[in-house]
Specification:
Mean pLDDT: 79
Strand content: under 5%
Shape: elongated
Radius of gyration: 25 Å
Number of strands: 0
Number of helices: 6
Order of helices and strands: HHHHHH
Largest sheet: none
Low-confidence stretches: none
Length: 141
């Protein structure tokens, strides 16, 4: 079955023949459907997380890690396809994508283990001070 679309005079507008245009649009549709499937998987996991958690006893951390992994997968695929990074050699791809992935891993580390736990650790220390400042003084008439 050949991919057909009704876009007229594509070869004149894009300065290449219609077969190349059909190929480009077919590739774009493949990317669309792949990203849609990944997004639907993310939505399904989020929607049924409570049931999944009861059945498997996984912590919410695994949900967050899964969403970050799916997001990185989609972002990498978008960069590889629409920014034509997939056409480059492997070393250049890793030079461009590697620092981004490392930075995301660093951010996850900092928010979960490092600085993100700071407010949880010192909340009890600061709460009495904040309560005293926000409570209104009693009015005596």
């Amino acid at each position: 079955m050949e991919f057909q679309d009704g876009f007229p005079d594509y070869e004149r507008l894009a300065q290449h023949d219609n077969e190349a245009g059909v190929s480009v649009r077919k590739n774009l549709m493949k990317v669309f459907w792949l990203l849609l499937v990944i997004t639907l998987i993310e939505v399904a996991i989020g929607w049924f997380w409570h049931d999944i958690q009861e059945a498997t006893h996984l912590s919410k951390t695994w949900l967050i890690i899964g969403f970050i992994a799916f997001t990185l997968l989609k972002a990498g695929y978008i960069v590889m396809t629409f920014m034509h990074l997939g056409d480059e050699n492997k070393a250049l791809r890793w030079c461009i994508l590697g620092p981004y992935f490392a930075f995301v891993v660093y951010l996850v580390y900092m928010t979960s283990i490092g600085e993100g736990a700071y407010s949880q650790e010192f909340r009890n220390l600061l709460d009495p001070i904040l309560k005293a400042k926000t409570e209104a003084p009693a009015h005596h008439e």
